[in-house]
């Protein structure tokens, strides 16, 4: 059972509605209004800082140049607010341009106020962190290189830090180098951290969206029988009226050779339609209990049956009396999740898959084992992560675990199950998956 990417996962990837939920560059487009609000915050912060330093503390400060730089940022914000709607989302290149402008404006303001000696110098990292949290990696890398260049230029600023008149705050070159290293390392660490967190959160959100789509599809399929019964019920009344009218027409026109055959055909076809609707109604009535209330053994057989035709023996072991087995409402999530796990086992087994079902008064457990190569140790800790793309060579015991397994794991956990992935511990090769529910959950769980 190594290399868990299954045919079920291929179906998911080929489904247009699920494919649209997967991670794509468009899902990382940042809203312009978000950047505008952050920039207004920057304008306010820079304005307050300049006023405090220049007017309240009366430190020597190039107020005119600082005002021009802060005003440029405010003017750019105003133009963006006027030209674009609040719902506009920036493409990667547009976002890179705006963040580069913000970075350049901040660097220029720091340059005329002491460079790296300015205590606000670390703020030059902010545009880089925003880029790595919201933009594709290649665009973010361009911005971090630009930020490092700006940081280097700040180290050679000829302007002194605003300080008390008559006193000069000198920063030794070795300290300048230390500040540069501190800012560069903080920038790279924060950028990497922001990118990883954002990337994983986006993948998880997209995978959960795909999970909801799969669950809705399974529920829709299970409801088709009820829809057929409803359609038969709704069509029964008008069809009965047509049948009555056809009989009256046949009685009135039985002696007229022009209409006799047509009326007989109309009546026979209406009777045929009534027979079809009657069969639909009886089919729903016969299967209604099976569709709504499902014994554990019936559910397992329904899950296992589609996978018996692939040349792999599936042994079903029931440890417990069927007369005492739990009977619960049909749950599309459980059926789909177990089906996916069994399908994976069949795909990577050499000759045999074993499904063992146990139950008592407190819990219900299902164990799925195969005689394949099993899970590699480094893969066990990552099982269930969405969009894992690593695939093994034929002689490897590692595997690629993707969206299909993530969906199965998520659906089963939502049903109240605890899942443990591992390898068989009896000396034989192969993987082992143990799923366990509290019995009360299995019996009380509805299909909602």
Uncertain stretches of 5 or more adjacent residues: 1-27, 284-290, 389-401
**Beta-strand share of residues:** 5-15%
Strand order of the largest sheet: 2-4-5-7-6
- Separation of the first and last Cα atoms: 32 Å
Q: How much helicity do the residues have?
A: 55-70%
- Gross morphology: elongated
Structural class: alpha+beta
Strand segment count: 7
Rg over C-alpha atoms, rounded to the nearest angstrom? 34 Å
Oligomerization category of the chains in this entry: single chain
Total count of domains: 3
Average the pLDDT over all residues and give the rounded result: 78
Query: Which sequence of SSEs, written as H and E, runs from N to C?
Result: HHHHHHHHHHEHEEHEEHHEEH
Q: Enumerate how many helices there are, as a single number.
A: 15
Q: How is the biggest beta sheet arranged?
A: 5 strands, mixed
EC number: 2.7.13.3
GO molecular function, one term: kinase activity
Catalytic activity: ATP + protein L-histidine = ADP + protein N-phospho-L-histidine
Membrane topology: Multi-pass membrane protein
Describe this structure in words.
This protein is an alpha+beta fold and 448 residues long. The chain folds into 3 domains: 31-88 and 90-217, no CATH class; 224-292; 308-444, Heat Shock Protein 90. It has 15 helices and 7 strands. The protein has helices at 7-14, 16-19, 32-56, 63-83, 92-111, 126-134, 137-154, 173-222, 224-252, 260-292, 296-304, 332-348, 377-380, 403-414, 439-444, and strands at 293-295, 313-319, 327-329, 352-359, 363-370, 418-423, 431-438. The protein has a 5-stranded mixed sheet with strand order 2-4-5-7-6. A two-stranded antiparallel sheet has the order 1-3. The longest helix is centred in the middle third of the chain and has 50 residues, at 173-222. Residues 230-441 form the Histidine kinase domain. It comes from Neorhizobium petrolearium. It is a multi-pass membrane protein.
